[in-house]
Design a protein that fits this description.
267 residues; 31% helix; disordered N terminus; TIM Barrel; alpha/beta
Length: 267
């Protein structure tokens, strides 16, 4: 079961009248989380993508963590290098010195030629300098070592975590019982009740199509923060508006720049 961790924001709205026309304005809107960075502007899971989020005032970046053969953590969504680099094969079978030479940008556009596969530590440092939070998708590797790295960089309280296996959720809870960052991906009321009882998350992630006022009320009844998944490269204006009007805390989006254009900068 997927678990993702994010921060929150409170939503409020009021009505302003301009020349007889009523226009809804929001006193505070959900925070935006850039899915793999600003991946419609720059290649996903690269420093260029992270820097684009910083440029647009996005305070949160979702990233995917994989590990090399010699146990170095990198940003990479796929288990293989083929789609987003000029390398081939599984990243876990490559040494870090070789991964560091790969081109992770040319596939997206010639202007990004030479972008490297970032080491996770480099993103941690960039995020710390910029005052950003990271939503960390944990795919494989030594969780203890990953947490040690995050602590060494002083970013434990600024990182939220995603897990895809229940055993990883349980391990995280055993290692960090006091960290209030556990968030569960849920699709139904039954799943919501299950993860609340089993893992006691602080946050839940729900696809925008599944979110309803009743679902929101149920989440708030458990004192949960809510993240709306609004993913996809097509126009998401209606979905973003629905998320804002429902009062979610975070909008996870592939188009954080479009969200900021509509609702304003967070930072």
């Amino acid at each position: 079961m997927r678990v993702i961790l994010y921060i929150f924001s409170i939503v409020a709205l009021f009505t302003v009248v301009y020349g007889g026309r009523q226009t809804v304005r929001y006193a505070k809107v959900p925070a935006a989380s850039g899915h793999r960075g600003a991946n419609t502007i720059a290649p996903e899971n690269t420093m260029a993508s992270a820097d684009s989020c910083i440029k647009y005032g996005i305070g949160n970046i979702e990233c995917d963590i994989c590990i090399s053969k010699d146990s170095v953590f990198y940003l990479m969504h796929d288990s293989t290098l083929d789609r987003t680099t000029n390398g081939t094969g599984k990243i876990c079978e490559w040494m870090s010195a070789d991964i560091d030479t790969l081109d992770a940008g040319s596939w997206f556009g010639p202007e990004f030629a030479g972008q490297r596969v970032p080491r996770f530590v480099d993103l941690l440092r960039r995020a710390r300098q910029a005052g950003m939070r990271l939503a960390v998708d944990f795919w494989n590797g030594d969780m203890r070592k990953l947490l040690e790295l995050i602590k060494e960089e002083g970013m434990l309280e600024s990182c939220n975590f995603s897990f895809y296996k229940e055993k990883d959720m349980r391990l995280f809870r055993s290692l960090e019982p006091d960290v209030k960052t556990l968030q569960a991906y849920v699709r139904s009321r039954d799943e919501l009740e299950y993860v609340v009882n089993e893992f006691k998350p602080n946050v839940v992630v729900v696809h925008i199509d599944s979110l309803t006022p009743d679902f929101m009320k149920k989440c708030r009844g458990y004192n949960l923060q809510v993240v709306a998944l609004v993913l996809g490269l097509e126009d998401k204006t209606a979905e973003n508006r629905k998320a804002v009007e429902l009062g979610v805390d975070i909008v996870a989006t592939d188009r954080p720049d479009a969200f900021v254009k509509e609702y304003g900068r967070e930072r």
